[in-house]
Amino acid sequence: MIDVGLIGFGLAGRSFHAPVIHAVPGLQLAAIVQRSGNEAASLYPGARIVRFVEELLKISHIQLVVIATPNETHSRIARQCLDAGRDVVVDKPLAPTLDEALELAKFARASGRLLTVYHNRRFDGDFQAYISLLPADGLGGSCDLNQTTIVFARI
Q: Fold for domain 2-120?
């Protein structure tokens, strides 16, 4: 069982991430950072509710952290979680700039941690059409739809 911590319980955390984590066999929604309110506690009574990222990172059995906070906080919080020895899934976008995203990916690799972007729209028709138009050796090499972020394929 992989204990998962969810940071953020706004629209993305409440509507997408928490239900998916809760439904996937092998994952346990162990903790949720909800800065205010008690909705997370009522919907997920088995999860520990904390108010700050630092509190979540003190829970030693959390192995994976999902970040569903405002976009401008993604790279900072992801780096904080990676630095604390956690694997990380970040809701899109990974970072506000390509340079920040590349730096974060390098940091994850150097830390020996996994880092990926939650991109649930990659199976939508428009995204699939775009991928089908790319040459096999196009952006980032392979155009496998199972790759979360094509840009990072050659890092």
A: Rossmann fold (3.40.50)
